TrEMBL record:
It comes from Bradyrhizobium denitrificans. This is Shikimate kinase. Residues 26-80 form the HTH cro/C1-type domain. Monomer. Its EC number is 2.7.1.71. Belongs to the shikimate kinase family.
Amino acid sequence: MNSPDDKPPDTSGRAAAFLSLVGERVRKARERRGISRNKLAELSRVSLRYLAQLESGSGNISIALLWRISEALDHRMEWLVGSDDPWTSEVVRCAELFREAKREQRRQVMRILDPSQPAQLRQKRLCLIGLRGAGKTTLGKRLGQALALPFVELNREIEEVSGIPVNEVLALYGQEGYRHLERRALERVVATADEVVLAVAGGIVAEPETFAFLLRHFHTIWLKARADEHMERVRAQGDLRPMSGNPQAMDELKSILASREELYAQAELMVDTSGRTPDETTRDLVDSIAKLGIV
């Protein structure tokens, strides 16, 4: 007969913390992609009610049960659901050692695993990132002229790869298909151009692998602006869709901007375009790039 000491410890508090973490990550992923909870429910065929519970940290108890099983087995939960077998995978073993390593040890490992010089990989490739309405196309063209570099919009490259307009790509293949073509188009730019000014869609930062590839192969510049300026610029271009039938449009835009700021901030440079003319911002861009010695 088991004694009281044989009973497992009460992990309800830690399980709740785990569910909260899962919910937060789902919510952040959704906001960074710029889609509403209703849209995610439609795309995933998961009920809106369940998504609301999940994001609030009170998701399906089966998630917590799986966590409790992993705890009882003294496993990380990702070992049970990941593609690598924790008993045989060198990747898992390396991840564990890397997690325990000191900062300088991690740097040495990264130099061994990635011996190439990032600055050399980036060549004279510049990329403007930021939310829709940041001025990436307008300023990209001006920057290209000022630096005598060709200007490219990644969406035009996506159309070249797919053979159809971007809006048809989204209609036919959805966000997943668009993101796949986005990565292919980005790789094509890297393969064919060592000197270029590139403008990308604001949501590219929501794809971790694609964004990491972008940061690795381009000198990135975040065009930052206030949410109201983003909205006004989009409307000034004649696109009224953001406000059409959506009184919460501004709140949603602010939410997207807030969720992506940490990612946009990974750029090498940040130039604030708020309250500035295109000429003024172009001068700021050229001066900032010159100080880094990029071109």
